[in-house]
From TrEMBL:
Source organism, top-level taxon: Bacteria
Pfam families named in the record: OsmC
Record's protein name: OsmC family peroxiredoxin
Biological source species: Rudanella paleaurantiibacter
Gene3D superfamilies found in the cross-reference section: 3.30.300.20
Organism placement in taxonomy: Bacteria, Pseudomonadati, Bacteroidota, Cytophagia, Cytophagales
InterPro entries attached to this UniProt entry: KH_dom-like_a/b, OsmC/Ohr_fam, OsmC/Ohrsf
């Protein structure tokens, strides 16, 4: 896996392109001179965690012939205050699903993602306590 990062302006706006060829914009906060033209690097870590687990859960539920009408995740990360670097200490994921879903199968799919399949979870777990909840509608 390879990523290329190119500076877009004279501040902190970057364009990153990975092996997929899809460009993502990254920028710093305005209080450090950024322009809010992209996601923050630490936000991208949480986005990676969310999407990694979401892919796992959807694949597992599809194999079980569960019908997903809507799928959303909310991720909240708490970083170490006053530290440099300031890693995540706690991360909470809320899985929000709608459809013709067996609650036990959904829980099992989330458990498998978090405990076995999600590489992003494996990266973050050594430094952060990761918890989650499931909401079915």
């Amino acid at each position: 896996m390879t990523v290329e990062l190119v500076r877009v302006d004279d501040a902190f706006h970057f364009e990153a392109t990975g092996t997929s060829g899809v460009a993502l914009h990254i920028d710093g906060a305005t209080d450090i001179g950024g322009h809010n033209l992209g996601a923050r690097p630490m936000e991208m870590l949480l986005m990676g965690l969310a999407s990694c687990s979401a892919i796992d859960v959807i694949m597992i539920l599809n194999k079980q012939r569960q019908v997903i009408d809507d799928f959303r995740l909310s991720v909240e990360g708490l970083r170490e205050k006053g530290a440099t670097p300031a890693p995540f200490q706690k991360i909470h994921i809320t899985y929000k699903l709608k459809g013709n879903l067996d609650p036990d199968r959904v829980k099992r799919a989330v458990d498998l993602s978090m405990d076995k399949y999600c590489s992003a979870t494996a990266q973050l777990r050594p430094t952060a306590e990761i918890t989650y909840a499931i909401e079915l509608a």
